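Entry for the shared binder. Reason: the reviewer on the internal report wants the predicted structure included alongside the sequence.
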Amino acid sequence: MDTPRYALVSGLHAVALCKDVDGLYAEPAPAARVVHELRGCEPRGELARAVSEAVVEGAARLGDSLHVRTPDGDAWLFTGVRVLGARGDVVTVESDGDPRRSYAGALAVPCGNLVRVSPPDPPELTHTDVVFLGCSPRGALRDALAAGAEGFEPVRYQVLHRTGTVAAEADAGRVTAWDTSATYHGLVDLTVAFPRTGLIPPQRRAVWDLFFGDDGPTEPGTWRRFTGADREEWLDQAARRSYGAPETPAGATYELDGTDVVDVDAFLCALGEAVYGPGRVFESGASRVIGAVLTGCTLVWHHADIARACLGVPPLTGRLPETFQEIVERLRSAGVRVVLA
């Protein structure tokens, strides 16, 4: 089988290699809000504050995350949490879906039990059929097909580079059907009950397609096609591709096109391209690390006035980004000659 694009994985082993997929790339559904009771709970810190506020106001937003530990030692992470109320040692919270395993340990709030109050949504609302095309089953899945089983246990999917390395991986769902492929001779198509919240925005596929081949992007400025999370994914794929990039020669001069450098991600994309060529970036985005790599070199930053006006603008949430002045000063302190043009 030549160059599969996807793999289905059960446990530690790939159980199918597939040429294509239908239905994976679509706008994901927002996570359903779910209500849980935290029973036998000992509110502390921010949770105690939110409980007090909810008693008075009827509800209180807690924050992006709540870690809870049960007596069996397991810890659980709730996200997008709102406290709806409390009675005795029972705290009622609403969150983005069911909790997932956490490794917060002692930082988690101790509770006796977690009970989901919201009824389960019907599968037709939470899942959709995604068909992996032109698959070559192996291992346990091949045995299940041969035995005529009606389905197969939940699997994970991997998006593969041409070299077989993994570009992305996440839960897929239970394999519910299979049939002889109408497109790929001698192979099968596998239908998976896929969570709607896990669907992939179509632009993400465009990023992965750029990096699928051995050479990756060869055209300058491909990062400009993407914004937000898709540009972050472009950066991540470019960083993987840039592993082991050659050292920069002492005294070299690099021309940075700052036309679209309006945030730190754009700066990292443009700088990586200026130094290493299209589709490559520095493995670390920290300015001190970049400065150490470029020590003794000259960086001519064209249209620097754009970055001066835009970099360091506070985001709505999260950590403050580096300002233009901080980046320039850190590069210069590392021995980089920065020329603003």
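Summary line for the report: The chain has nine helices and 16 strands.
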